[in-house]
Design a protein that fits this description.
By secondary structure, the protein is an all-alpha fold. The chain has one domain. It contains five helices and no strands. Helix 1 packs antiparallel against helix 5. The protein is rod-shaped. The chain starts with 8 loop residues before the first helix and ends in a 6-residue tail after the last helix.
């Protein structure tokens, strides 16, 4: 006979915080994409960045800056996706591994205090998952 699973506020709180962190990461991803487009289309910004490169002794161009921005946007998109999936699993109290992975991705995403709190609550609520 199975013992009933006791549902507490911990998994719900962990799930909500993970989803919130995922949304923040998604906003950062979109903001990085918009900034990348803005850097590529604004001559004054391009020259300012290139002057900064020259002053620091680097020979990279604006393409290097845009490459790093695109890599950042991809990183935010991955962490946002993992956090949103993990947060949904935490709210449904299913698949603790994915819920924990999502909360850890929330740490790596845009706002780490929310991710740390979500990870703690998700880890403490392991017994609530099916």
């Amino acid at each position: 006979m199975e013992t009933p699973v006791k549902n507490t506020w911990k998994s719900t709180t962990g799930g909500v915080l993970t989803v919130v962190a995922g949304v923040f990461s998604l906003i950062c991803c979109l903001g990085t994409i918009v900034f990348t487009i803005f850097v590529g289309s604004n001559e004054a910004i391009r020259e300012e960045i290139l002057d900064g490169f020259r002053d620091a002794g680097f020979s990279g161009g604006i393409g290097l800056v845009q490459t790093f921005l695109i890599i950042g946007a991809i990183f935010f998109a991955i962490t946002a996706t993992l956090a949103l999936i993990g947060g949904i699993f935490a709210l449904k109290r299913k698949n603790w591994g994915w819920a924990l992975a999502g909360s850890i991705a929330a740490i790596l995403g845009s706002w780490w205090p929310i991710g740390i709190t979500a990870t703690v609550f998700t880890a403490l609520s392991r017994d609530e998952f099916k």
